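During the reporting period the student researcher (J.K.) took over the structure-prediction task from the postdoctoral fellow and processed the backlog of single-chain submissions. One of the processed entries is reproduced below for the supervisory committee.
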Amino acid sequence: MVKIISDSTCDLSKELLERYDVSILPLHVLLGEAEYRDGMNITPDEIYAWSDQNNTTPKTSAPSMAEAMELFRPYVEAGTELICFSISDTMSSSGNAMRLAAHELEAEDTIHVIDSENLSTGVGHLVIAAAEMVQAGKSAAEIVSSIEAMRSLVRSSFVVDTLIYLHRGGRCSGMTALAGSMLKLHPKIIVENGSMIVGKKYRGKIDKVILNYVQDMEEELKKAKTDRIFITHSNCDEKTVQDVYDYLDSLHHFKEIFITSTGSVISSHCGPGTLGVLFVA
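J.K. obtained the following structure tokens:
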């Protein structure tokens, strides 16, 4: 038996988690002295309200080793092998908490922790691919090998409506945030080798920017793996999201187009109005 577990940054919907029998290990969000569990007792809307009221960004933290042990223990005792996914190790110690838990449970041979080198539904792509291999009867060793080969093929990027949240979280300077606001700049943030880098800088109203960002990827999209693509967003306008969906659908390339919302941890850092299109090359 093989079971798939991911930390909460995979941003997969409840329906997809149930469909693929994936269990979640939540990260933490701290609003001042109050601590919450991502996807369980805090919403992005509550985070944005608190952040604006306090003019700062919530802190986020990895799950503890004890929390990982609590989730893993019943599977270890049942003799089930685990394949566990974490947000990029360069962004969080979530994966390390999982590895420490495996060591404490003396189950390092049966708990396989994979650094996704990604975030959000970039992680989600790997999680679903692994879950499909479980359903197909593949062994844990076969799945880990396939996922490690697939990892570099995941293409994750997004555009942000405001630089304020990235600035508050220390991911861009105050001058950059101010200039971006004045010039209505919306950078494309790309996940590469487990880290975030800035790509093209778009200018104008966010709804047009988002569609331009997606259309600029058309050649890549037409060559992408056809199984699925994610539109993952943080409180974007419904019409904008639908326009992106319609555009992707018009390519007649992807078997499934999923619309998902960013969880509380990812939302804490990107802010409202962010949208990404994530696929596998």
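The committee noted the following: The first helix runs from residue 14 to 19.
J.K. will present the remaining backlog at the next meeting.
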